[in-house]
Amino acid sequence: MFRLLRKCLTTTRRFCTDTSSFMVREPKICTVVQSLNENPPTEDVVVRGWISSIRKHKNVTFLHLQDGTTTDDLQIVALDDLPIPNLTYGSSVEAKGRLVRSPYDKQEVELSVEEVKVLGSCDPEAYPFKSKKMHDIEYRRQFQHLRPRNKFDGTVLRLRHEASRDLRSYLTDEGFYEVHTPIMTTNDCEGAGYVFKAVAHENKEFFDKPSFLTVSAQFHLEALSHAIPKVFTFGPILRADHSKTRHHLSEFYMLEIEMAFCDDLHEVTDLVDALLSETVDNLIDKHEKDLKYLWKHSEVEDLMKTVDAIAKESYQGMTYTEAVEILQKHRKQFDYVPKWGEDFGKEHERFLVSHCNQCPVFVEEYPIALKPFYMKRNVDGKTVKNVDLLYPHVGEVCGGSVREDNIDNLKRNMEESGIKNIEAFEWYLDLRRFGSVPHCGLGIGFDRFLQALTGIKNIKDIVPFPRSYDNSITM
Amino acid sequence: MFRLLRKCLTTTRRFCTDTSSFMVREPKICTVVQSLNENPPTEDVVVRGWISSIRKHKNVTFLHLQDGTTTDDLQIVALDDLPIPNLTYGSSVEAKGRLVRSPYDKQEVELSVEEVKVLGSCDPEAYPFKSKKMHDIEYRRQFQHLRPRNKFDGTVLRLRHEASRDLRSYLTDEGFYEVHTPIMTTNDCEGAGYVFKAVAHENKEFFDKPSFLTVSAQFHLEALSHAIPKVFTFGPILRADHSKTRHHLSEFYMLEIEMAFCDDLHEVTDLVDALLSETVDNLIDKHEKDLKYLWKHSEVEDLMKTVDAIAKESYQGMTYTEAVEILQKHRKQFDYVPKWGEDFGKEHERFLVSHCNQCPVFVEEYPIALKPFYMKRNVDGKTVKNVDLLYPHVGEVCGGSVREDNIDNLKRNMEESGIKNIEAFEWYLDLRRFGSVPHCGLGIGFDRFLQALTGIKNIKDIVPFPRSYDNSITM
């Protein structure tokens, strides 16, 4: 009770619009998006943010203010007798005034200002960004600590937040539990060399065994799904990948899901279809302005159509074998045409998607030799129960499979894959030894998913602080 | 549209309770918690899970089924003419039958079963857990891959999910954006030796600079808060900490928050108070059964009172100086009494909480020398604008401060702290160089927060796969 009282008092101190009349009426603190949505715009407010442009006229100064909460600026109108020392592009300010209907076309609301206080000035010569200039995305990438202040990069950040939230909330509504799987594991992926190792001071081991950074949470999720049947984890994955393409990062975000009591690959595809299409539908519905702003600045054409297809069209499906047949039928279009048993390249993935009218495509049942040991085999003795989801522009965004739940088959698969340190997998075999269950799982590359939605060509521009083999690590 | 149709069809295939009469009526698939909540319990269902006990009587067999969705079991009643080969404790099963009102006191609903299919058997001799035995928490800790199947450990997992969700949703409702800060950074904490380093194959560097695993997302959050003023991140933190206490992990979860345009420490304490107390209030409200189950198995006394205080009482506040005075007044109770300028030990933290009637206590304004360079100093020239939150039983769960936003003061602080590689912080100084803003931030130790709520003494039992200096890393 006392806590509530205290909370009331402090709330009163800061947001006093509904206090009784004997108290001093203090202005409400608003973000830019809140200001622009004030209707009718009659209130005394304080708005804080960074100056994105200054226009001085004879008797009046127009300032534009942004604070990362919307792609729009708040126009601030200051009469010339208002002294504002140190005001430059990039400065942070606190503006106090009255929100009024704007007489100008570009905005409905503007701030008729009484006082502008510069909180932090900004030397326009030294500041890497210039007023009224949309700097190249490659140029901005050099200033990871400052680029989120650019409207484009700020919008990407907001969309990351909204998309994460929608994915989580869909899964939770469907009865999934979010779990926390470890960053440091004993899994070295058979010394394949593309894992990071965690060492202590002077490159010494810290634990009793070498510890590696997670390349997938799958095995830990499988353990948890044998206790709570529907689980997911959403977090960073680290791979010491030497790829220097615009689709690879050394640190990226993955949503991984595991479902026990499920041995039907179509439960995986149905879930992925519903999860992704509803998330995208939601984003279009609630954040159309943000998406359109990003699309406007993308080199990818017809993004609205693509994203609409992701949200609303039926996801297509074909087997790996059918995909190979399609590619071979159109062999003239490729430098190299994959034979059955070989993996697809980016050009083949792109072709398969365009073959399906730029709709997402599930490609199912790959050859055994192309996929990891934990996938359940089909009765044909040639293929596994797996699925890859291909998206327009970006290619693979998701992979899933039915897991082998029989301990003898699993051991055989491990041997055939050439795994030597089977003793390191004893705990994993235990899951099949004690109350084993048929189960499926999948992983969605969150950054690539956002690339597809935004038309951002380089994955380094989707994450705020990218880490990749060809990129300097500066902070 | 076609997608929706396909979704309908597949949904129909699996959950047919509301299909039209000409279709075959297939039983609904239920979790244990859904079964127990079916009211009236008349439906044909399929329930899947693991066998937690078997009681054979003359003409009837009673099975108990659990699936991690509740602390309760579903009682399955099988007439003896029902053959169930390979059924043992720990087996996974699929049971088909009809939910009916139970004639027994212990439960309202039970499953009158027509068919029980064992999906994965379990050798009761080899399985580390025995039927009807609550194994010691230390014993269970040895089997990280299997222990979530124990009701206690499964309940902790569910609470982690619910608490994470509530914290996120409170902050989002308050206008905060969740951002993703990197695991790999250049910050080596001045070679203090308690950071992990990420290396590639054969202990080689991977990037152009040495990369370390994050010990705090604060600096990256500060950069983002200078673009979107209210941000948070919730994820793993890695510290090569040699502590072997029951309060330390090498990998733990932290919720970190940064607020721009805020220079009042009480905005931090108000936010923390509201965020944590409402989260706890929610958990008590919605997950009382789970909490009570964990409290029943805790050695900590009077947990309900403690947790109620966290949810409903006013959080107390005192300055560091007042805290020292209180401790000195009760000097007889301690082996060592801290003088002004020295840090508190666990016994002192515990005393301060009990001094405040076992309510959470904010201790504010510590001596400059005890705290990091980025904290803003008070005008007294002796203390900083910081706050630590102490909780009953666990001590410090949260720390926050006003950040130094003036570049000259920040440089002075860095020099006085003995930081040599100031060039590595140039990007951080840029934040104060270009449009600097007064800002505050804080970090909440999520695992310790849950320890306080559940009465779990060892932090290794709060996370599913603990990593710590004294603990073998097995998976």
Overall number of structural domains of chain A: 2
CATH superfamily of the largest domain in chain A: Bira Bifunctional Protein, Domain 2
By CATH reckoning, the class of the largest domain in chain A would read: Alpha Beta
Strand order of the largest sheet of chain A: 7-11-12-17-16-15-14-13
Molecular shape of chain A: elongated
CATH topology of the largest domain in chain A, which one? BirA Bifunctional Protein, domain 2
Helix content of chain A: 25-40%
**Count of beta strands of chain A:** 17
Oligomer: homodimer
Quote the distance from N terminus to C terminus of chain A: 45 Å
- What portion of residues of chain A belong to β-strands? 15-25%
Q: Count the DSSP helices of chain A.
A: 12
> Which value, in Å, is the CA radius of gyration of chain A?
27 Å
* Topology order of chain A in helix (H) and strand (E) letters: HEHEEEEEHHEEEEHEEHHEHHEEEHHEH
Mean pLDDT of chain A: 92
Low-confidence stretches of chain A: 1-22
Query: Would you identify the CATH architecture of the largest domain in chain A?
Result: 2-Layer Sandwich
Q: Could you describe the largest sheet of chain A, including whether it forms a barrel?
A: 8 strands, mixed
Structural class of chain A: alpha+beta
Using a beta-carbon cutoff below 8 angstroms, give the protein chain pair with the largest interface and the number of residues from each chain: A-B, 118 and 117 residues
